[in-house]
Amino acid sequence: METRYLHMTFFWGRRTEVLFRGWPGARGGMYAVALVFVFFLTFLIQMLSCRRLTELGRRSPLLGGFFRTAVHALQTGLAYLVMLALMSYNVGVLMVAIGGSAAGFLLFQSLVFWARRPGEVSSTKC
């Protein structure tokens, strides 16, 4: 008989299912892989929200519009995957989702790593 891990409240533990039936399950190390995957997804969402990426197609409004639409669709799809992963109600998954989003925001949108010229008004430069 197959063991299913269905929780309806937040819990802490590595015996859970994230996104796919039986994954990561109780296999050693796969829970860590699942956490790294969720971290990467949330980090990627923040990277895709970076304005510099969506301004690549400025020379051709039509191509730029299609590119921005594709980036938006990818960002939305990834956000839904993260939402589904969070519905595992696992505290570890929640923590790495928040951590990945925070790390992505820090690197791409917080202006901490973007040097400003003297007198330049602060704006999103990612």
TrEMBL record:
Membrane topology label: Multi-pass membrane protein
Main location: membrane
Parts of the chain that traverse the membrane: 29-50, 62-87, 93-115
Protein's cellular compartments: Membrane
Protein keywords: Copper, Copper transport, Ion transport, Membrane, Transmembrane, Transmembrane helix, Transport
Key word Membrane present: yes
One GO molecular-function entry: copper ion transmembrane transporter activity
GO cellular component, one term: plasma membrane
InterPro entries, per the entry: Cop_transporter (IPR007274)
Record Pfam families: Ctr (PF04145)
Similarity comment: family membership: Belongs to the copper transporter (Ctr) (TC 1.A.56) family. SLC31A subfamily.
The protein's name in its UniProt record: Copper transport protein
Species this protein is from: Spirodela intermedia (Intermediate duckweed)
